[in-house]
Design goal:
This protein is of the alpha+beta class and 407 residues long. It contains 15 helices and 12 strands. It has helices at 38-44, 48-54, 70-76, 89-104, 109-130, 149-168, 173-184, 188-195, 205-224, 230-237, 259-274, 284-293, 295-298, 301-311, 350-355, and strands at residues 4-8, 18-19, 23-24, 30-32, 59-63, 141-143, 318-322, 327-334, 337-345, 359-361, 370-376, 380-382. The strands form 4 sheets. Strands 10-9-8-7-11 form a 5-stranded antiparallel β-sheet, with helices on one face. Helix 4 packs across helix 6, helix 5 crosses helix 7 and helix 6 (149-168) crosses helix 11. The two termini are 42 Å apart.
Length: 407
């Protein structure tokens, strides 16, 4: 994937690209800075070749293209044709805000229950939005302030679970809706544990015991708020049950585990891996591989297969190296060809990419294949929601729809 090439100075003005490093004299004096566009060099320094020859420089390193950054990729997506459907980030901000209010006020019964009921209504809207999005990994949100990771985890798991349910049961939209809402609340019991002064984790035996109570507490909190859907309650209660019976809180196994809980379990595991801080963290391809490896004994294989079929081995947003030496970002996967997606090439200079981003369909171009994944640009950076009236950080929206204007 090395795009750097050393060229003789006599060819310098015949090439296109940017300087790959600083051009220095033998004594260390800077002649031209790294990143300088060769076209700009020709315009500003028509005598550049003579200067280089005078100082004994015979070759310079150039890059044929400037790699696309994660921020640039986010800016390019709306320019692509055909357009790629993604969740409106305003909706993600609203859901995350509502969830953070519930988490922050878990010890206040009145505010907590109002928040749960409000989130329930927003979850229904979130489900309808998820149904129209084919490339779900490009809609997962990332907390730019790193303050409410558990909140964004809940929102992302809701999107993933709703997406899986839609693919697995396309004729049952009501089930997909219940799965989305149940996934949104799957960890709500943890908020109550923390509000009560206990820690939630997997370290000491006390932390482990607290951790294992969160599905039951979550179910109880929803009941107290007036959520009576048996499906949603069972999905929250049973999302840590495992296929071989090794889960909790009831030790259910196989098909005795509610199907929605099986879906939430896979979505939860995938997003936990995706948000990890280790070597495999923030890489959707590695998260998918890890979920597949855990299928035997832990997850429903049909649910895992559905997730794999819908996002592929290289999920949208994966930065990949191609067999021809180019690199690119996966835009779209197909159920019938999981390893030959559409890829946005990371070639050319920024000024030309903005005008005409180049996309290659690997299913149609059999001469090129993916060698490996090297990064992941899939997550959308989500800015915090700020109430226009100011000073109302704990505000709950009474109207259950995303606002059209935010400041």
């Amino acid at each position: 994937m090395n795009s750097i090439e050393y060229v003789g100075i006599e060819r310098l003005f015949e090439e296109e690209g940017v300087l790959a490093g600083e051009v220095l004299t033998p004594s260390g004096v800077l002649l031209f800075p790294s990143g300088l566009d060769l076209e700009s060099l020709r315009t500003a320094h028509p005598d550049a070749v003579e200067q280089l020859r005078k100082h004994g420089v015979e070759r310079v390193a150039i890059k044929r293209h400037e790699p696309i950054t994660a921020d640039e990729f986010q800016r390019l997506i709306p320019l692509l044709s055909p357009p790629i459907a993604r969740l409106n980030p305003l909706l993600t901000s609203v859901v995350a805000h509502q969830m953070s209010v519930v988490y922050s006020n878990a010890g206040n019964r009145e505010l907590r229950e109002r928040g749960v009921r409000s989130l329930f209504s927003i979850g229904v809207h979130l489900s309808s939005e998820v149904r129209r999005i084919p490339q779900i990994t490009l809609s997962l949100g990332e907390d730019v302030e790193r303050k409410f990771e558990e909140v964004f985890h809940a929102v992302n798991v809701a999107m993933l679970a709703g997406h899986i349910a839609k693919k697995l049961f396309p004729m049952w939209p009501d089930l997909a809706q219940s799965v989305t809402v149940g996934a949104l609340f799957h960890d709500i019991g943890k908020a109550f544990i923390v509000a009560s002064g206990y820690s939630v984790g997997k370290g000491s035996s006390r932390e482990e015991r607290s951790y294992r109570t969160h599905p039951l507490l979550g179910e109880a909190l929803l009941r107290d708020a007036g959520i009576n859907s048996h499906e949603i309650l069972s999905f929250v209660r049973s999302h840590h049950e495992e296929w071989d019976g090794g889960g909790f809180p009831d030790g259910l196994s196989g098909e005795s585990i509610p199907v929605g809980a099986r879906i939430v379990a896979v979505a939860n595991a995938f997003n936990n891996l995706l948000c990890g801080t280790g070597e495999d963290g923030r890489r959707s391809d590695r998260a998918m591989s890890s979920v597949i490896a855990s299928t035997l004994g832990k997850f429903d294989r049909f649910v895992v297969r559905t997730l794999l079929a819908s996002i592929g081995l290289y999920p949208p947003g994966s930065v990949v190296e191609l067999s021809n030496g180019n690199s690119g970002i996966v835009l779209e996967t197909r159920e019938r060809d999981l390893i030959r997606p559409k890829v946005l090439l990371m070639t050319g200079l920024k000024k030309s990419r903005d005008a005409s981003p180049e996309i290659v369909d690997l299913r149609k171009d059999s001469s090129v294949s993916i060698v490996r994944a090297i990064d992941d640009y899939g997550a959308m950076p989500i800015q915090p929601l700020v109430a226009s009236s100011g000073g109302r950080g704990n505000m709950l929206f009474r109207k259950h729809r995303s606002p059209t204007v935010m400041k």
